[in-house]
From TrEMBL:
Domain Core as annotated: residue spans: 1-112
SUPFAM superfamilies associated with the record: HesB-like domain
InterPro entries listed in its UniProt record: ATAP_core_dom (IPR000361), HesB-like_dom_sf (IPR035903)
Protein name per Swiss-Prot or TrEMBL: Iron-sulfur cluster biosynthesis family protein
Pfam (any one): Fe-S_biosyn
Source species of the chain: Candidatus Enterococcus murrayae
Amino acid sequence: MHITLDDTAKEKISAHLNADKILLLTFEDGVGPYSQHAMIHMQTQFSINIISAEMEKSTYDEKIQSEIGDFWIKGYSKEDLQEEMTIKFNPRLSTFSLSGEGGMIDDNLGFIDFTKN
């Protein structure tokens, strides 16, 4: 699996990264400390999360490569992902989207930097 990011998405996400931070692609199913809610409707939802190396990540057991670093995922969330994916930033709506070769996965991909106080 691989994730490609458009230039704006790369810039916006990379601004939050350094050597001590980890990227997560969180399946929003209510499992783990960074999932914001359990799915209460039929829409698949993901979010980009940034955590520090010291923060808990035991539910994230697999990773997907990208040009800005590996995105850690909950292994079982792969069933909702695709081999080749793209994260794009929509400047008109100020939102990220996640798509794959089979089409849109999440048109409103959340973004939370858990290292910000």
